[in-house]
Amino acid sequence: MSATVRDDVVKTASPLFNPRDPEFIRNPYPTYHRLRRQGSLQWNAAGNHWIATSHAVCASILKDRRFGRRYEAMVENIYGRGMMGETCFRLLGMTMLMQEPPAHTRQRGLVSQVFSARRVGLLRPRVRALVSELLDGLEPRGTMDVIRDFAHILPVTVICDMLGVPEEDRWLFADSATISTRMLDPVPMNALELHEANAMFEEQGAYFTDLFERRRRDPGDDLISALIKVGDEGGLTTDELLANVWLLFAAGHETTRNLIGNGLLALHAQRNALRRLQADPTLIPAAVIELLRYDSPVQYVGRLAFEDVQIGEATIRKNQIVLCLVGAGNRDPAVFPDPDQIRLDRLDNKPLSFGGGIHHCLGAQLTQIEGQEALAGILGRLPGMRLRDADHPSWQPNFAIRGLRTLPASW
Q1: What is the pLDDT of residues 368-406, one digit of tens each?
Q2: Longest Cα pair distance anywhere in the chain, in angstroms?
Q3: Is-above-0.85 flag for pTM?
Q4: Residue 51 carries which DSSP code?
Q5: Which residues, 6 or more positions from 28, have their beta carbon under 8 angstroms from its beta carbon?
């Protein structure tokens, strides 16, 4: 997987950036601006991959069928050979997220039959009621951790409702986010993190396998029952069913939780935008898109070249990997004027936060509905809310998925 680059393409044996640096995790955007000024596509010899930093290059690669997912090659690039036998990598590799046609087409087609836009759209009243119920309990307290007490509970409840996970079983999914998202980083997990990731997949896998059997005996009006039916008819294997149910669960809450946390932190840092939003709640749908752009829960997406591809002055060779830094693309001044400012009036605002091409996030609509209802509820019910420690927030030590550990608030 050796690189071939032209003499006029940026190349270095030193890392272009350190995704585990606490300062980078706290605020990656100055680094992104520096990298973009150096070049929109650069070879990172230390990581044995390319990085794309501009909106145009990221967007083109995500839609280009000469690039795609070959998960085993991407794991090998980070860890070396022989890791696909690990439970966490084996199951993640079987999800539609990590597959290419024809397996991706078959899996996504079956999942889309039940995780449809119509079904998701009908969830808005339920999401609104859950927001109200959560705030009914929180408002009299005068304080909360936005992440633990609200941003995590809301989407976990929604996706568990959709999947048909009984309330008494939901404790199992209380604290798996950091482990599961760490797997996506380009810096390898250590032995303890790998053990914890495997244990999480094994525990949740055993639970869902048992739930599948219960739903086969006694189907309900839920996603798992529907997936079992279309899966049996369309040829989903048990492992594929398990992998994609886990994907729906993980993706169904992680992005929303971080949208709410990242978004509220950003609004309180740029109070003119916050005040405008409080004065005009009709701007909330536009605000959700802008907050997804401003501090995206997804910071990079990996792609592998299926053939030699020329982009500008760079020749990306077959089987080389490109990290599309969508967080950098979302702050590209060539596309977004004043990219470091929250602007609720952006026209044709199209961030890269949900990816692109055939792998565009299936849950994008659900995330936006939950984000809209969460913002409307918090801004309407808690207009005087203040964030504590907002100048020194506590971030999860991840790169691929960006989110806060905690966000204390009072009112």
Answers
A1: 999 999 999 999 999 999 999 888 999 999 999 999 999
A2: 64
A3: yes
A4: E
A5: 299, 327, 399, 402
